[in-house]
Amino acid sequence: MPTQTPALKNEVLVLKQYIAGKWIDGSTTKEIVSTNPADDRQVIARLRGADKSDALRALDAAQKAFPAWRDTPAPVRGRILAKAAMIARARKEELARLMTREEGKIYPEALGEIDKGLTLMDWFAGEGMRLMGVTAPSELPRNILYTLRQPLGVVSIITPWNFPWAIPVWKISPALVAGNCVVFKPASLVPAMAVEIVRIFEEAGLPAGVLNLILGSGSAVGDVLVEDARVKAVSFTGSNEIGKRVHTIAGARGIKVTCEMGGKNPAVVMADADLNLALAGVMKGAFGSTGQRCTATSRLILDEKIADRFLKLLLAEVKKIRLGDGLEKGVGLGPAVDESQLKTDLDYIEIAKKEGAKLLCGGKRPADKNLAHGYFVEPTVFDGVTPKMRLWREEVFGPVLAVTRAKSFDEALELANDCEFGLTCAIYTQDLTQALRFSEAAEVGMVHVNSPTIGGEAQVPFGGVKGSGVGEREMSKEGLHFFTELKTVFLDYTGAARSSNIY
Ligand code: NAP
Predict the structure, then answer these.
(1) Does 242 sit in the ligand 1 pocket, CB within 6 Å?
(2) 294: annotated active-site residue
(3) Three-state secondary structure call for residue 61
(4) What are the two backbone dihedrals, phi and then psi, of residue 499, each rounded to the nearest 5 degrees?
(5) Is residue 419 annotated as a catalytic residue, yes or no?
(6) What is the pLDDT of residue 4?
(7) Handedness of CA 152, 155, 160, 166 (dihedral sign)
(8) 45: nearest Cα among 17, 6, 95, 3
(9) Which atom of ligand 1 lies nearest, measured to the CA of 468?
(10) Contacts of 363 (CB under 8 A, 6+ apart)
(11) Is residue 334 within 8 Å of residue 38, measured between CB atoms?
């Protein structure tokens, strides 16, 4: 078993690209430096970024590796994935620690993310045994009809920074087990985590060229990973702005593309709800991972009958949250991922104030001098937010919760749907009719009843509708099927039946 990498021992890691099974420097002379968002004086990693020529080399390597990988039996591909999961499981605490240092989320959440990714790897490893088509009865005598699931070829995987382990893993795993070769471009803010992912697959025995890593800015290498003729599919997760661009370019080429994008997820608390359960769910949904989840609860719709009572309970809980470095025990809220995200959080707070929303708590950087070198912002709650306000409609991606009140179930549902996004939502109620009506009518990809807006499980589809997602769902069978083409075979073993037929 290879030794731990320097990044896991808190030393500055010098990162490289991984192309055709070799770790090499990127072609740009400009150094990219990744720092700890809880204290930007701590350097995590340095690297020379990739440019278009590196991306083209990676595509070339993937193309060359494809025939042999395609012909490797799917159960054998699955076993490499299972081995990768085993290697990662043995290192999960170190990986979680690295994630906290690089992305900023608190250690328990980082550990939870590693576990989620491991479950996904387990699930997709097993899919190597289940990459099945169907057989169907033919209308003709002595004919067999069946389908084959076949890989696409070279696929590009482009991922965001906020789940730097789980999202790459839930895309790379199905792509590989289905028999594709991958060029993986992670977000520039989390290169060290991406390198660990690739190292794990390398150690598990993945042949050279099957998985390639390009560490470079999206503006330098993004387009070529979508435009190049060798790319047969693109799996993207990130913002709407970039997602729409990727979708347009891939769509114009007529290749498969899936884009999972932003969210503005509502939680509805009805008067009959278990308020303690709702409180715990809203706290976790709104402030977990510093609100930097696509599934974060960013809109709270309260039945007016319990609104004041619920907000009193909520504010008491928010006041208990301790901000700080996510590796410290007792810290409940980490920093924004970088200076730019911190600015976005603070800008939206100012916009909400100007538009007339009522600030109930937070709204600024913490006064604590020990946090001055991190990108911290206080957990923030605004009441009286109306659907016309930008805080209601636009994704902030920070610990900022917009609250409004509804007079009835119908109004709550209308408010929940009054949004361009449609990723996930939650309702807290003990009324079965309300729960089922909400589940049916909510314009989202995922509904939670009496649980927070966050989360996903390997065996069920994950993804959104409206502005939140376009293309195939991720995870589950759907996540695997995206990386395959179906072929129908008509096998006439008399050699004559079909030629005499009109079909
Ligand atoms: P982003 O800015 O859109 O970046 C996502 C990825 O796209 C990064 O790897 C980025 O590279 C790359 N990229 C940038 N320009 C590109 C281009 N022209 N062509 C191709 N790729 C390009 O998003 P982010 O800030 O990393 O992530 C936050 C967003 O992701 C939020 O909106 C969040 O809601 C969303 N998200 C959605 C889901 C979901 O499942 N729906 C899950 C997690 C996050 P660089 O880093 O080098 O710019």
Answers:
(1) yes
(2) yes
(3) helix
(4) -65, -20
(5) no
(6) 41
(7) positive
(8) 6
(9) 41
(10) 349, 353, 378, 380
(11) yes
CB distance 235 to ligand 1 below 6 Å: no
Whether the Cβ atoms of residue 77 and residue 69 lie closer than 8 Å to each other: yes
Q: How close is the Cα of 242 to the center of ligand 1, in Å? A: 7
Please identify, by atom number, the ligand 1 atom nearest to the C-alpha of residue 238. 30
DSSP string of 340-351, one letter each residue: HHHHHHHHHHHH
Domain range summary for the chain, segments of one domain joined by +: 17-25+52-261+468-488, 265-449
Length of the chain: 503
Given 260, 394, 472, 474, which residue is catalytic? Answer: 260
Q: Tell which CATH architecture fits domain 17-25+52-261+468-488.
A: 3-Layer(aba) Sandwich (3.40)
Q: What confidence tens digit (pLDDT) does each residue in 166-212 have? A: 999 999 999 999 999 999 999 999 999 999 999 999 999 999 999 99
Q: Is the CB of 456 under 6 A from ligand 1?
A: no
Q: Which residues of the chain have pLDDT under 50?
A: 1-4, 6-7
The finding on whether 222 has its CB within 6 A of some atom of ligand 1 is yes
If you measure from the C-alpha of residue 184 to the centroid of ligand 1, how many angstroms do you get, rounded to a whole number? Answer: 13
- One-letter amino acid identity for 445? G
Looking at domain 265-449, which of 3.30.300.20, 3.40.309.10, 3.90.850.10, 3.50.50.60 is its CATH number?
Answer: 3.40.309.10
- Nearest atom in ligand 1 to the alpha carbon of residue 241 is 3
Task: Determine how many CB atoms are found less than 10 A away from the CB of residue 391.
Answer: 24
> 494 CB contacts (<8 Å, ≥6 apart)?
141, 142, 143
